[in-house]
Design brief:
Length: 493
């Protein structure tokens, strides 16, 4: 594999499957400005900038180096804090670093490298804000908060860091010396384009070859299907935002992985008629952006999903395939009657998502079979969709419960507000993300009244028997879930 590290093109021969980017940067390349904090993608101290070719240009995003696997970064540009040096006007500091100094935004400094990198990529990707109106300032602040949602500071608190972002917002982007330090944008684009061309040529020459490398990166759907059929015990990986925890915290060794993100067919997200098709390699950030208009409930939910660094790598299909009872996305997909396209070899089949989870960490996938894509129906006319995640922190936290509901209420005096369609699903309430079947059946076909809504907790107790754990007690889960469903129903009235 080849990658561009700051301004130097580097070849890595058959990297070990379980080598993280952070480990490689610090131990092999001796670039120690990138820090290791939590090693699970929570604190952001290890944040780096990763650029990828997209439609002939380089798109730069923030990434947690501690849970990004080195093998996944072929033909990428990795920028670390070590290369950030400004002009003499800034006394050797990048404008982001200068703003952090001016606003006294760093004390112990351990988290500061991650904050700097997150702010650099925010500044790089955000048009200049004049801050002339309250609306512009509010939009600017929200963008900064999203960019920093995966960075934790225990010293200064966030106020001085937000002040640094305010100082940056009105500055001329022409002052950004970033690309001067990495050889110029055109140099970076040429390097990545050359790596991509070499990769394509090698892929063509090895078409049909399923010889096992430690980190396998098939470039076509057929190649992926054949490789996984040949090595069905091998784990598939996309963003590695969950799998890497087995390495960093579980201390497990992984001999071989098959990466799905190089397959163009699995990077597709598109709307066909009243359905969104989402491939297995599509990142959560891409889904968040795509769904803002057709399904805002999804974008709102993803705004509470982990952090920007995690959403830039993690995938919607990965959140399903992980088969976690506390996965945030499946409840919303369940109430929308989503379907999965599964593939084994060259054969595909389609199943409803509600038939995918068979038990705790048990799925309907057969040996050598993988999730190709998700088919997500959009709301019909008159259908309301609501979703709420309950967690101790607003961002970067696991849910105690996640409640989703879709409902259609018949309109008109003669209809008396009759419920003609209703789906309710919850995460964190059972061993799998699960529909509230009894509650749905009791509500369906009934006029929506306060007396009817008052009975929801009784029916919900038949649908779910949650457990006590470190995130919440069973009683809390039961009560807050009932409260949310009752609130959704009252809004629908």
């Amino acid at each position: 594999m080849h990658l561009l590290l700051n301004k130097t093109a580097i070849e890595v021969v058959d990297p070990a499957a379980d080598t993280t980017l952070l480990q490689w940067l610090r131990e092999s390349q001796r670039l120690t400005a990138t820090k290791e904090g939590c090693a699970v993608g929570d604190c952001g101290a290890c944040t780096v900038i990763v650029g990828e070719l997209e439609q002939g240009a380089i798109v730069y995003r923030s990434v947690n180096a501690c849970i990004a696997l080195l093998g996944s970064l072929h033909a990428c540009h990795v920028i670390t804090l070590d290369t950030l040096q400004g002009s003499t006007l800034n006394k050797g500091l990048h404008p982001v670093q200068r703003a952090m100094v001016d606003c006294h935004s760093s004390q112990c400094g351990f988290c500061s490298p991650g904050f700097v990198m997150s702010l650099v990529v925010w500044w790089l990707n955000t048009p200049a804000n004049e801050l002339a109106t309250p609306e512009a300032f509010e939009k600017h602040r929200h963008g900064v908060e999203l960019a920093l949602s995966g960075n934790l500071c225990r010293c200064t608190g966030y106020h001085p860091i937000l002040l640094a972002a305010d100082q940056l917002a009105s500055m001329d982007r022409a002052m950004d010396p970033l690309f001067d330090q990495v050889g110029g944008y055109d140099h970076c684009l040429a390097q990545l384009s050359n790596m991509a061309c070499q990769s394509h040529a090698q892929s063509q020459s090895h078409a049909g070859d399923v010889s096992a490398q430690a980190y396998m990166t098939p470039s076509s759907l057929d190649e992926l299907a054949l490789a996984y059929e040949a090595f069905p015990q091998t784990r598939l990986v996309a963003g590695s935002t969950d799998l890497a925890l087995d390495i960093t915290h579980g201390l497990k060794s992984i001999d071989r992985l098959i990466d799905v993100t190089g397959v163009a067919e699995l990077q597709c997200i598109e709307q066909q008629d009243n359905h969104i098709h989402i491939g297995a390699g599509v990142s959560l950030s891409a889904v968040e952006a795509f769904c803002q208009k057709p399904l805002p409930a999804m974008s709102d939910l993803l705004g509470r999903f982990a952090s920007r660094q995690v959403r830039n790598r993690g995938t919607l299909v990965g959140n399903i395939a992980n088969s976690s009872p506390i996965a945030d996305i499946p409840p919303l997909l369940l109430v929308m009657d989503a379907q999965l396209i599964l593939q084994r070899g060259l054969n595909q089949r389609t199943i409803p998502l509600k038939e995918f989870n068979l038990g705790y960490k048990q799925t309907a996938l057969k040996a050598g079979e993988f999730i190709h894509s998700v088919i997500l129906p959009l709301p019909l006319s008159g259908q309301r969709v609501s979703v709420e995640k309950v967690s101790k922190r607003a961002e970067d936290d696991i849910s105690a419960t996640c409640v989703a509901m879709s409902i259609t209420v018949e309109q008109g005096a003669a209809a008396r507000g009759k419920v003609t369609q209703i789906n309710i699903a919850c995460g964190g309430m059972a061993a799998i993300p699960k529909m509230a079947s009894e509650t749905q059946s009791q509500l369906l076909g009934q006029p929506l009244t306060h007396e009817l809504v008052a009975q929801v907790p009784l029916w919900l107790a038949q649908d779910y028997q949650p457990i006590d754990d470190m995130r919440a007690s069973a009683a809390y889960r039961q009560q807050v879930t009932a409260n949310l469903i009752q609130g959704f129903l009252k809004e629908a009235m």
